[in-house]
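Note to self: keep these together.
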Amino acid sequence: MLEFLGNYIIKFIETTSYAGIFVLMTAESALIPIPSEITMPFSGFLASSGKLSLTLVILVGTLANLIGSYIAYYIGYFIEETVLLKLIKKFGKFILISEEDYKKAGNWFAKYGDRIIFLSRLLPGIRTVISLPAGVFRMDIKKFTLYTVLGCLIWSAFLSYIGYILGENWMALEGYFRKFEIVIIVVLIAGVLWYLEKHLKIIKSLRSKK
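Structure:
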């Protein structure tokens, strides 16, 4: 299934160029399971062969992720959480989202606040789901936009640049992501928690001195 999807993504981008990147990355952030780990590295490879601009690939990927994140955000914003959970329970398997995924993202958001939007954009699996609880919690749209752009810019640039460097061997990246996905997630989560703990301690320290 993944190999079939990968071939479709490759052909779609080859045919539609930047428009294809935009459609695929928008869909990914709008909770449709299209792996950016294929879309962006392949686009980076096309940039290395001179068919696309690396800068435009990164910018299009980032903008598309923002648009898709808005869609997910407003789904959470306008649909009651109880209804949303029922929809996830009934249809989530078709878009690879479970109630556990949603609740995990919601717990992170409730516990760590707005900045988790930025940090979660760098975590495979949760980076798209986090937009739903952001909408449910009525996160300030300006902050949501800022953190989403920053996080998605880093993610798009990282994947595209590796595809650019690897050239024709860009497909190896997708294999590494699947092989080490759990390790990547654990390391990134540990880094996020360390950052938040340190940041909160600094804030408490500054407040106690006032």
